Amino acid sequence: MMKLLLEGVATFLMVFWSCVAALMQEMHHGLTFPTVCLVVALTVAFVLGWMGPAHLNPAVTLTFAAFRYFPWRKLPLYVATQIGASVLACLSVNAIMRPHDDNFYGTVPRPPEAGARLPFLLELLASAVLMIVISTVATSNASKAVVGIAIGATVGTLGLVIGPVSGGSMNPARSLGPAIVFGRYTSIWIYVVAPVAGMLLGALFNKTVRQSDAIVGFLCGGRGASSRVVVVGRSVTGAPGTN
Predict the structure, then answer these.
(1) Residue 229 resides in a domain
(2) Would you write out the chain's pLDDT as a tens digit for each of its 243 residues?
(3) In a domain, 9, yes or no
(4) Residue 157, Ramachandran bin (φ over 0: left; ψ between -120 and 50: alpha; else beta)
(5) Alpha helices of 98-189 — where are they, by DSSP H?
(6) Residue 234 lies in a domain
(7) In a 10 Å sphere around its CB, with 0-12 CB exposed, 13-18 middle and 19+ buried, how is residue 75 labelled?
(8) For residue 56, what are the CA distances in angstroms to 24, 100, 124, 243?
(9) What's the CATH number where 95 sits?
(10) Whole-number Cα distances in Å, 140 to 3, 109, 143, 236
């Protein structure tokens, strides 16, 4: 129960400050887009570095479950907590900042008439890269602070690159919260399907590369990576039949 509570608090903080920054840019033009990305990066780094392991993202939770790092039975409750925390964060943003109906701080393709193909591809590829980074640092011996900085920097950098086209979500919770609160579901499928598909692809790529590295190490006489096969979010001994 404590882990679930921490997941909710961490997701709330991430979505709240991300939306505040986006709304500040929308309402007052007080922040540039790179500054918004920096706020998001610092928030993710702070939350993960301070609170420790948290998914913050339904696509991450689903990917961990698909690769047997997270129990399937806990998936619905975690995803509901993440989305609920996102909605609560957006309601809090609205209560504090009182945006107009046209001050939508969700994620939509830019410009809206540009179509869905490019935003979908960018969200998918960025989510894959993000999962590769997450799975890499999750299996390292780095401290919470280093893990937070690595993931936060990745989120901020990817957002800076793809944001002008797709909004830079990579997170269904970040997109669903504003969509539910404002009742605007235009192209919302992009921000649900692309992150999930991208992170599954990223995890599969990471697993394939790590296992290939272990095989090469074994063939070279048991050196290097031969002693471990790293799977998304965990490491297992590279002996036959080990799980």
Answers:
(1) no
(2) 888 999 999 999 999 999 999 999 888 777 889 999 999 999 999 999 888 788 999 999 999 999 998 999 999 999 999 999 999 999 999 999 999 888 999 999 987 777 899 999 999 999 999 999 999 988 788 888 899 999 999 999 999 999 999 999 999 999 999 999 999 998 999 999 999 999 999 999 998 987 776 666 656 765 544 444 344 444 433 334 544
(3) yes
(4) alpha
(5) 117-138, 144-166, 172-182
(6) no
(7) middle
(8) 22, 27, 17, 27
(9) 1.20.1080.10
(10) 21, 35, 9, 13
pTM value?
A: 0.85
Q: Rounded to an integer, what distance in angstroms lies between the CA atom of residue 167 and that of residue 16? A: 16
| 235 DSSP assignment | E
Collapse the DSSP code of 229 into the 3-class scheme (helix H, G, I; strand E, B; otherwise coil) and give the result.
Answer: strand
Whose tokens are 């979010």? That residue is 233
Helix (H, G, I), strand (E, B) or coil at 59: helix
Q: Domain containing 62: what range?
A: 2-209
Residue 238 lies in a domain: no
Q: Name 237's bridge partners.
A: 228
Sorted by sequence, the CB contacts under 8 Å of residue 105 that are 6+ apart come out as 19, 22, 23, 26, 93, 99, 178
- Tell me: cis bond preceding 111? Omega within 30 of 0 counts: yes
